[in-house]
Amino acid sequence: MNVIDLRSDTVTKPSAGMRRAMADAEVGDDVLDGDRTTRRLEQRIAELLGTEDALFFPSGTQANQTGIGLLVEQGTEVLLEANAHIVDYGLAGVAALAGAQIRPISTPDGLLSAALVQGALRPASPHVPRATALAVENTHNAAGGRVLSVAAFDGVVRVARDAHLAVHLDGARLWNAAVAADMPTARLTRGADTVMVSISKGLGCPVGSCLGFARDDRARAWEIRKRLGGGMRQSGILAAAGLYALDHNLSRICEDHQNAKRFTELLSDHPALRPSIPETNIVMLDLVRDGDVADTVTPRLAMAGVRVLPFGPRRLRAVTHLDVSRTDVERAAAIISETLR
User: Fold this and answer.
1) Are 36 and 236 in contact (CB under 8 A)?
2) What pLDDT does residue 341 have?
């Protein structure tokens, strides 16, 4: 049985063309004296992000922690949306590694606003910690891949600047945000001091993320990455996949968004489900029938041929990606509809 895997856009397999690019990559030792292919990827990502420089990382988590580590002071606060990926899935890395605490900002939809950030700022006092940074996630995973608009991001950046806060952008799926907003990626980063973007989500690479930052921060970013165990030797093999993806996979992300919309349309009138309306490539499926819970429904769907991710007691997450076609998502919707009839 051909199982359709919608758990995440991280489950993609490198294509034949990407594997060839990796096999043929020019490599060096990136810890000792540099890897030219890795440097080409870093320079290209920096261009796309509108940052002066960038550094390649084995994971987005490590890149996020490095970005925040560049910006915060120990014993201070980082402001974050309450359900941001760094809050829920960073294993308290901000506290453990940067020595800062998270100040969560509750939102109705996962999207920060200038007013909400302003309201979260504490008045100056010798009895409470200072805030030194704001971190923003775009797209917002837990909110169903929602996009923070350019106007909203500009607004929160203005509040941050007025409060003397640095700004980190967790852009794991920033490529998707740029396509949905019909904006150059660099426009969505304007005002951020550090920007993380993933190449293993959306672009189909097996490994990797990059962190964009000011040119003067490269030595410190390199130092933090090394301390976290992120120094890699012949990393050009992995960077070559990123260069291939930028050439071949970046322009097709809109297909994932269209497939997510089609998937939702086909399930929109199902009595057991309430699908979210996707802005990008993530669809949340809320179970509305008595007795249906994610932990029992998920294995039933897997047995029938569709893999989704439990995302709460009565919520499932489905993510479209380059390894699922329009035919696949239509078949997946049919299987889900029949299984939960």
Assistant:
1) yes
2) 87
Diameter of the chain by CA atoms? 63
Cβ burial, residue 44 (10 Å; 0-12/13-18/19+): middle
How does pLDDT run across 85-94, given as a tens digit for each residue? 999 999 999 9
Domain boundary residue, one of 213, 248, 283: 248
In a domain, 1, yes or no: no
Closest CA to 163 of 103, 218, 83, 217: 103
pLDDT one-digit tens code per residue, 303-328: 999 999 999 999 999 999 999 999 99
Question: What residues make up the domain containing 49?
Answer: 16-248
Instruction: Say whether pLDDT at 1 is over 80.
Output: no
pLDDT score recorded for residue 168: 98
Among 209, 229, 248, give the residue marking a domain's end. Answer: 248
Both 149 and 193 in a single domain?
Answer: yes
| CA distances from residue 113 to 139, 151, 235, 250 in whole angstroms, order as listed | 14, 9, 38, 28
CATH at 323: 3.90.1150.10
Radius of gyration of the chain (CA): 20
The answer to whether 90 and 61 have CB atoms below 8 angstroms apart is yes
Phi, psi for 123 (deg, rounded to 5): -60, 150
